[in-house]
Amino acid sequence: MTQKEKAQRLLDLHHATDPLVLINVWDAASACIVEQAGLPAIASSSAAVANALGHPDGQKLPWLEMVAAIRRIAAAVQAPVTADIEAGFSSGTKELETAIGDVISAGAVGANIEDALPGHGDRGPLYSIEDQVRRIEAVRNAAEKRGVHFVINARTDAYWQAGMKPEEALQGALERGKKYLQVGADCIFVPGLREQAHIRTVVQELNAPVNILATTGAPSIPELKKLGVKRISYGSGPMRAAMGLLRRIAREAQTTGTYDSLLEGAVSYLEMNKFFER
């Protein structure tokens, strides 16, 4: 597929009967594993990419390293790639347009765009709705200049605000989601949204693809499908699960001295190398 075709394919997956399930990756090898498993699209995780390269999450990774990681992932697979770029690593809309150009040049056809202000940690303040609307408009403008329908997954951290009551979070997510859709977002990502009644309300009120984060307390994929959710992201969970396996391997070596954790379910040496033989 051409990049335009990949972008259209990614957009179409947001309107399919089954939800788009994204097992987020952090490098070329993890991307190949996910594609081989039959997932139709590949998504990166900002936290997983940053941690793998020796940085904390929160736009601490140098931008050029993030772009290089996206490029390696996109080059390793045939499926469309959507990139988690947090708030865009950009101080203004002009810089954001440039950043989106970098992401498209790296081979991605979509991205998460957060409304959490960088540098404030978890549950920090959000961009004003007006500012975030301008930022989403800038992303759409940058993509249109390159002739690609870049799939914008507009994230709102309305449920991750300190001291926010559930009903306040719901109203904040709805207000922001509606505005973001009006200016070009294709999907609304609401991490922290787990209560089924709230999910149903968001899906019905927005009348557009909604993205839920797979995490503790979230409904299962079949349950989310029944609620009308169109996109389910695993975030940094797969990378952290892989690190958990590595920890178990190390502990087994220190205790029983056996190799069960190492060998069970391992991808073979030959199979891993075949991913990258051209």
How would you characterize this protein structure?
It contains 12 helices and 8 strands. Helix 2 (28-36) runs parallel beside helix 4. Strands 1-8-7-6-5-4-3-2 form an 8-stranded parallel β-sheet. The chain is 48% helix and 10% strand. Strand 6 (187-189), helix 8 (196-206) and strand 7 (210-213) form a beta-alpha-beta unit. The longest helix is centred in the C-terminal third of the chain and has 18 residues, at 237-254. With 278 residues, it is of the alpha/beta class.
Question: How are the elements arranged and paired?
Answer:
Layout: H1 3-13, E1 20-22, H2 28-36, E2 42-43, H3 46-52, H4 63-76, E3 81-84, H5 93-105, E4 110-114, H6 129-145, E5 151-155, H7 166-182, E6 187-189, H8 196-206, E7 210-213, H9 221-226, E8 231-233, H10 237-254, H11 260-263, H12 269-275
Helix pairs in contact: 2-4, 5-6, 7-8
Unreliable runs: none
What general outline do the C-alpha atoms trace? globular
Largest sheet: 8 strands, parallel
Please, how many helices?
12
Give the structural class. alpha/beta
